[in-house]
Amino acid sequence: MPRVHEGKLDASSRRFAIVVSRFNSLITARLLDGALDCLRRHGCPEDNVEIAWVPGAFELPMTAKRLAATGRFDVVICLGAIIRSATPHFDFVAAETARGIASVGLDSGVPVTFGVITTDDVEQAIERAGTLSGNRGWDAAANAIEMANLLSDMT
């Protein structure tokens, strides 16, 4: 019988860093609320969570990298909201943020989850931050719990 590795949704013994973009804080505060609710409901003690606020989504990867390098966290959760406007700025910020967050996880070996929503307008962002489409902050935290436990199980 093959050995199967699968992460469990038990956050009771894990340490989490959450990096949150202050830009679009109407949205990102809701994402943070969702992530914290998920961690709490899955047994994470409040003392096992640290939150770092950054100016915008572009600064998420640098801060995630610094937090991952400390060795204090099992996983880093990145939360942000990038909303399209009339200029190509959205495309550059969204692409580089995603690339940077992925690189942090691959380079550090610490799971880094992507809770950055990219939308065409504010209404879509509100939907993804806890109204019609669930809460992507919750989803990023659930993925973080699962990945922390999965990688721990594989060692």
Description:
The chain is an alpha/beta fold. The chain has one domain (36-149): Lumazine/riboflavin synthase (Rossmann fold), CATH 3.40.50.960. It contains 5 helices and 4 strands, in the order E-H-E-H-E-H-E-H-H. It has helices at 25-41, 60-69, 89-108, 122-128, 136-153; strands spanning 16-21, 49-54, 75-83, 112-119. It has a 4-stranded parallel sheet, with helices on both faces. Helix 1 (25-41) links the parallel strand 1 (16-21) and strand 2 (49-54). The longest helix has 20 residues, at 89-108. The radius of gyration is 15 Å and the shape is globular. The mean pLDDT is 95.
Key phrases:
155 residues; alpha/beta; Rossmann fold; four-stranded parallel β-sheet
Concise overview:
The chain is built from five helices and four strands. With 155 residues, the chain is of the alpha/beta class.
Number of domains: 1
CATH topology: Rossmann fold
Please count the helical segments: 5
What's the CATH superfamily, by name? Lumazine/riboflavin synthase
**What is the mean pLDDT?**
95
Strand order of the largest sheet: 2-1-3-4
CATH class: Alpha Beta
Strand percentage lies at 15-25%
- Major β-sheet annotation: 4 strands, parallel
Which consecutive residue ranges, at least 5 long each, have pLDDT under 50? none
Distance between the termini: 19 Å
Number of strands: 4
**What is the CATH architecture assignment?**
3-Layer(aba) Sandwich
Backbone structural class? alpha/beta
Helical proportion?
40-55%
